[in-house]
Structures are given as C-alpha cells and as structure tokens.
Design brief:
Helix content is 58%, strand content 4%. With 295 residues, the chain is mainly alpha-helical. It folds into two domains: 7-88, Orthogonal Bundle (DNA polymerase, domain 1); 115-289, Intergrase catalytic core (hpI Integrase, Chain A, Orthogonal Bundle). The longest helix is centred in the first third of the chain and has 20 residues, at 69-88. The radius of gyration is 21 Å and the shape is globular.
Length: 295
Amino acid sequence: MAEKFYKDKIDDFIKFIKFEKGLSENTAIAYRNDLKLFEKFLINLKIDKVDEDIITDFIFELKNKNYSNLSIARVLVSIKNYYKFLLKEKIINKSPFENIESFKVRKKIPEILTLGDIENLLNQIDLSTKEGIRDKAILELLYSSGIRVSELTNMELTDVNLDEKIVRCFGKGAKERLIPIGDYVIEALKNYLKHRAEISPEFSNYLFITRLGKKFTRAGIWKIIKNYAKKAGITKNVYPHIFRHSFATHLLKGGADLRSVQEMLGHSDISTTQIYTHVDRSHLKNIHKKFHPRG
C-alpha cells in the first residue's frame, strides 16, 4: 500500500472506534479532523516514517497556533489510537508512541540548554577513548546544526563536507537541506574520522557507528546524552531534541533572522520556528526583572 497516510484505512478506523469501541458520532468526527490536521503537518512524509522528534515538532506547532493543552492532548490521543489501529491491522510495524508513556504538553516554551550547560556536558567526555572522541563529535554536531536525532543517525559519510563547512541531511518528506557548521564541530569531526576505524573494523556508510559497526538507534544516542548529563549534574531533562531547541534559541538570541533559522531547521511553516522567539523574549523578560531597578 503506497499511500503515505493510508487514507483508505481511516474509514475503517472510524468504523472501529464507533462500533467496536462505542464512541459517539461527534467523537468520531473529532478523530477524523485530528488526523487531517496531522496529515497536513506531515506534508510528504509517510506515516510509518514518523518518529518522536516529528511528534514533538507537531506539538510545538500546535502550541504556536494557540491550541490549548487539552486540545493538544486530544489530538495526540487520536493520532496514537490511529497508529494502534494500523499496528493491529498489520499495516505498519512500529509506532512513534511505543516508547513514550505520555507527552508533557503543559509547557508552552521548550526548555533549552545554556552555553554553560553545553560546556559542562562536553567537559564530561573522556577524549582519551575512541568512543569519547565519537561522542564529542555527536554532541557538537547536534548543537552546531540543530538536526533531529533521526537525521543524525541516518547521516552518511558522504553527507559531510568539512572543506565547505556544511552537512547534508534529509528531513520530513525526504526533503534535503544543507546546514553550515562551525569550527568546533569541524575539529571534532576531523578527530572522529581519524579514529573511526578503531571503533569497528566493519565497513559502514553511516557517519556514526557503534562498536559493532552498525548505525546508531535513537535510543542509543539518547543513552549517550543521558549518561553525560548525569555526570554533569544537570537536573533539567536533557534529551536529543533539546540540542535542536538550544541551537535555534541561541541563534535568534545572537541576532540571526527567523527565515534563516527556519531554513536550517527544515520547518515548512515559519510559525513552527516562531516558538523560539518566545523563548528568547522570556529570557529577556527574566533579565529585565532581575537587573532593572524597576524590574
């Protein structure tokens, strides 16, 4: 079945929730509308290619469009149940909700890492080991480029051009984008590539590999980051997507224009990127309140 959203299955799903689950006609209509909203957000991305990062982006887009927390929670339930139905029907074999008990939608503004947090994390890495050299390149690239963790795990050796100082990745709908990277990550990548063969003798096209010569899973990257955050004593929730939030916020705080940040993040709608201007404004308000004599 080639259709990206399995539209021919939505009617079956609606019948299922009405006749087998006993939900009302109004609830069924709400489910259908929620799925249309999600389909519009996905553009050309197939539903079975969606991961937690994309769901997170979807949440922020809804928040930026002033959806209430209750409305967002309802939309997520609709999507989650549709995935359950597709799994039950053996149309797909995985769901982005599998490893997530619930999404916390209370916070309107995404949490970010400060520059001090970033330095603290990087300082925990043991660069005397080949794994440490690799891990530093991973963290530097996440922060320097703002790419999603799924984009990082799928990145291949040919997607990195250190001479041109750019990396290539493929986002939603396999849309290609080129992202500039800075000197710190270039140095980290050069050092990693020099020692990459020591991690595993197995050949792989993927940029970052495990000791078995395989590409990383999302969970594998998550585990690495959690480990360094624990060593650094950072109490906030540190997860791969927080580097993306921090990347965008720090760029805007430094004076970058919204359109450029939108392009680097790969957002199709600038309203999704605008959430980070709210982060910056909240920071400025805190500074004003703390330091202004009449704050």
